[in-house]
Structure formats: C-alpha cells, structure tokens
Amino acid sequence: MDYADTLIGGRAVFLEAKYTRAEQMEQSRIADRQAEAMDAHTALGASCGVLVTFSLARCGLVLWAAWRRMKEIFGRKYIKAEDLTKMGWEFSLFDPRGLCQHCMD
After folding, report:
1. What is the largest CA-CA distance in the chain?
2. Does residue 58 sit in helix, strand or coil?
3. How distant is the alpha carbon of residue 92 from its chain centre?
4. Please, which residues have CB within 8 angstroms of residue 65's CB and are 6 or more apart in sequence?
5. For residue 10, is it left (φ>0), alpha (ψ between -120 and 50) or beta?
C-alpha cells in the first residue's frame, strides 16, 4: 500500500498510487498481492482506491470497486485520462480537498 491511514471518525483509507507517461493506465499495473490486500481491506469496510497520475498533468482517484470493474465500465482493461474527467474522478494536485472529498464519499 502506498497510503494507509485512518481518518478522524475511524474511516480507514488505503490507496495505491500509479503514474504513467503513457496515454492509458493498464488495470494490470496493480499486482495480484496488491489486489488481494485491497479486496481484504474493502471487505472490512475501508475506503480503497487507486490514485492515478498521467504525466503529472492529470490525476484522479478511482475507487477500488470501479477499478475491479474496469472492463465492465469501459469495455477495456485500461483507463485514459479523459475517463477521469468523464466519470468525475479527476482532481487537481494543487487542491488537496479534491482527494479528501473522494475519500469521504
């Protein structure tokens, strides 16, 4: 896990962070052991997701349930930067409230 913490009030948050210079982020970038850990924490009630960054220009938080269902949602096993915008997952690296809001939803 790249980020693991507990917020005030007891909500646990676990994030994997992935960066690419490519135009797409492959679902396979999450290793099997990472996926197993995310599944286990999710089953216990934690908020889990994948923080994706494209060339430091665009970033977003994809909740774990959506990452797991990527093929079903997009018809492919990768995500593009424009998918972050379309799905409302994109936030500014310079506004930390954007990430916090995703974790609290």
Report:
1. 38
2. strand
3. 14
4. 42
5. left
How many Cα atoms are found within 13 Å in the side-chain-facing hemisphere of 91?
17
Residue 80, SS3 per DSSP = strand
- The pTM (predicted TM-score) of the whole model is 0.83
At residue 42, does pLDDT exceed 90? yes
Domains of the chain: 3-104 (3.40.1350.10)
Return phi, psi of residue 41, to 5°. Answer: -65, -40
* Cβ contact 53:16 at 8 Å: no
Check: CB of residue 15 under 8 Å from CB of residue 49: yes
